[in-house]
């Protein structure tokens, strides 16, 4: 799938290269108008593992918003990503032209792991939880500290939570991406802990805007 501005990207199926440190995360969200064509186009992204600096990609369908697709791709650095966008992207993306609308794409720099040992690997997960926030400028460091000291330990200790990351973008924007073994295990974590953790972390004081989604992963989109 394509999205211009912050970047243009596709959505897909393969084996990611080994994860070895710094990473750029691209999150794409769109409304699909031709599901069969869109999914057919996803297969064209199987060539991504040959791109220098590519670390992995996966995605799927929103559990909360019918017809909304999410794709997450990972690159070793901004330089490798920019090179891919300039050389190969448009050719790969052409197969999905006209199959979606309202695409939004954002780039985030990996700041720290949620749990430990993050890898851009989707094969053992069924669900991804994505939370996107914009934070008051004078509360950015407090928000990041609470993510590290309050939210991370709670998520890392939850059965079924596999791995995740905390990413940052210009404009005081942040992404929390977490991978879960099942929707039921993620749902149990939310029901038991989220309201209490939000109070402890003073989330309402930090946040200007907060959106999120739960994504059912499509194995055929994993590259």
UniProtKB/TrEMBL annotation:
<dbReference type="InterPro" id="IPR011008">
    <property type="entry name" value="Dimeric_a/b-barrel"/>
</dbReference>
<protein>
    <recommendedName>
        <fullName>DUF4937 domain-containing protein</fullName>
    </recommendedName>
</protein>
<dbReference type="Pfam" id="PF16291">
    <property type="entry name" value="DUF4937"/>
</dbReference>
<dbReference type="InterPro" id="IPR032555">
    <property type="entry name" value="DUF4937"/>
</dbReference>
<feature type="domain" description="DUF4937">
    <location>
        <begin position="24"/>
        <end position="108"/>
    </location>
</feature>
């Amino acid at each position: 799938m394509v999205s211009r501005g912050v970047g243009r990207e596709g959505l897909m199926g393969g084996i990611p290269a080994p994860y070895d440190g710094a990473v750029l995360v691209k999150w794409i969200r769109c409304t699909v108008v031709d599901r069969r064509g869109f999914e057919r186009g996803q297969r064209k992204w199987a060539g991504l593992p040959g791109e220098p600096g590519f670390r992995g990609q996966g995605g799927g369908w929103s559990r909360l918003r019918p017809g909304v697709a999410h794709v997450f791709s990972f690159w070793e650095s901004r330089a490798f990503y920019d090179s891919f966008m300039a050389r190969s992207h448009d050719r790969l993306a052409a197969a999905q032209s006209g199959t979606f609308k309202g695409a939004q794409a954002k780039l985030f720099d990996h700041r720290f792991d949620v749990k430990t040992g993050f890898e851009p690997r989707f094969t053992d997960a069924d669900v991804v939880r994505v939370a996107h926030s914009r934070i008051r400028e004078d509360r950015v460091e407090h928000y990041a500290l609470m993510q590290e000291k309050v939210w991370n330990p709670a998520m890392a200790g939850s059965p079924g939570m596999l791995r995740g990351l905390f990413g940052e973008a210009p404009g005081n924007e942040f992404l929390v991406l977490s991978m879960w073994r099942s929707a039921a295990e993620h749902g149990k974590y939310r029901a038991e802990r989220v309201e209490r953790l939000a109070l402890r972390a003073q989330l309402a004081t930090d946040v200007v805007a907060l959106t999120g989604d739960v994504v059912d992963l499509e194995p055929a989109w994993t590259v």
